[in-house]
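Input (structure):
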């Protein structure tokens, strides 16, 4: 295989297969963190797939690493220009590492190492590798949840035992059985039939507990009613802050256990029919996505209610400064806890914390508003006065004009009547004077 490296990505992780020295150079050059893949297990997986035996033997002679795709690594991987296979949906490619230590541009995966040509051209073999990559991704998430539960300074078992609900008690027992199965798997390298028979019915129990925890989250969200009195709102938000962590912990544990079952289930698919592993993997991922969406809706609603409560409190900070600050503080505490949970399990919700308004800030805003309103009122009064004066002047001019016009009409009428009288008098005098003469 010389210095050629095969890259295969399923969107969640990147498998890097090739000589150990070339892989190390490749990963170091691109600053990619990775986890060792069991090449012996890869070899055994491919050995059970028709036509992939040579690829399995070649892989066993080399090394494999798995890179989790994060925001940073996604940018790095994008530059490799991996090409998506229409058959499997996986993205593939080959890079070479020359003696200078620089990574060459990607070449078509069909021109990759001849020994891995069978792997690249065999959908069942690629599907098997994708199934194994899914197991690494889920194991990584399970480890992150374990770290999350440790960071919140409360052991999950203590939280669960503090609850008296039967659903949680049953999940504790299921968790113990699944943890035992994972321990056996770690020792044997796979999941045998006996181990699988002990745990295959447990997803139903865990799903019931998850549904119960989601109802509790919904109940907490319903307590945060923005229309409530401020004192009641402060009490309810504080209660949510005190209780939300335990139910988030329950949800995290449910998610972890269901991922654990999925890891064991893929093992069994490998054992029973390796050619169906990819289809089974896709079904598990679809179910996992729906589970994340369901949890995201419930916790997202809680964040929305919490944000509304904080904004309501900020709007009343002038009259109730202490209570308002308490509500905003508790709301942001809930926000931090839910956001930490979202980050751990892989849920993206775009919501930010609400900043508590200071009393002086609110008072200043109110003062500015009053001054602005006062200035607008004064300007309106001035405008009204000026407009009224102008209208009065116009009315006076119009009145004067009408009066003059009326006077002129009266004068004209009087003059006309006087003229008519004079004319009539002259007419009567005229004939008498003629007769007299």
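Output (sequence):
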């Amino acid at each position: 295989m010389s210095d050629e490296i095969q890259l295969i990505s399923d969107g969640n992780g990147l498998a890097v297969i090739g000589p150990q020295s070339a892989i190390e150079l490749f990963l170091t050059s691109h600053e990619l963190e990775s986890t060792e893949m069991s090449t012996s297990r890869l070899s055994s997986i491919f050995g059970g797939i028709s036509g992939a035996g040579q690829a399995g033997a070649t892989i066993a002679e080399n090394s494999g690493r798995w890179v989790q795709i994060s925001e940073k690594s996604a940018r790095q991987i994008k530059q490799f220009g991996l090409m998506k296979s229409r058959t499997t949906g996986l993205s593939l490619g080959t890079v070479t590492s020359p003696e200078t230590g620089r990574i060459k541009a990607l070449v078509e995966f069909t021109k990759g190492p001849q020994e891995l040509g069978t792997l690249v051209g065999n959908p069942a073999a690629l599907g098997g590798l994708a199934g194994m990559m899914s197991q690494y991704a889920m194991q990584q998430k399970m480890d992150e949840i374990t770290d999350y539960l440790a960071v919140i300074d409360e052991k999950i078992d203590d939280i669960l035992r503090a609850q008296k609900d039967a659903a949680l008690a049953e999940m504790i027992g299921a968790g113990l059985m699944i943890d035992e199965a994972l321990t056996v798997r770690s020792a044997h390298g796979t999941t045998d039939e006996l181990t699988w028979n002990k745990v295959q019915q447990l997803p139903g129990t865990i799903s019931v507990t998850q549904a119960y925890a989601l109802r509790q989250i919904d109940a907490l969200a319903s307590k945060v009613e923005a229309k409530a009195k401020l004192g009641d709102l402060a009490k309810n938000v504080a209660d949510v802050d005190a209780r939300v962590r335990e139910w988030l912990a329950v949800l995290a544990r449910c998610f972890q256990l269901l991922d654990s079952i999925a890891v064991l289930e893929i093992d069994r698919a490998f054992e029973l029919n390796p050619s169906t592993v990819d289809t089974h993997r896709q079904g598990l991922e679809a179910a996992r996505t729906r589970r994340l969406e369901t949890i995201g809706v419930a916790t997202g609603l809680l964040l929305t209610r919490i944000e509304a409560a904080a904004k309501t409190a900020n709007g009343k900070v002038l009259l109730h400064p202490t209570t308002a600050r308490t509500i905003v503080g508790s709301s942001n505490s809930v926000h931090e806890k839910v956001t930490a949970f979202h980050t751990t399990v892989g849920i993206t919700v775009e919501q930010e914390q609400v900043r508590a308004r200071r009393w002086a800030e609110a008072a200043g805003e109110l003062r500015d508003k009053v001054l602005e309103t006062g200035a607008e009122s004064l300007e309106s009064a001035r405008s009204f006065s000026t407009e009224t004066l102008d209208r009065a002047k116009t009315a006076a001019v119009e009145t004067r004009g009408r009066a003059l016009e009326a006077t002129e009409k009266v004068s004209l009428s009087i003059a006309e009547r006087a003229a008519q009288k004079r004319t009539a008098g002259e007419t009567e005098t005229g004939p008498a004077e003629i007769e007299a003469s």
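Notes: The chain has three domains: 4-129, 152-357, 359-424. The longest strand covers residues 4-9.
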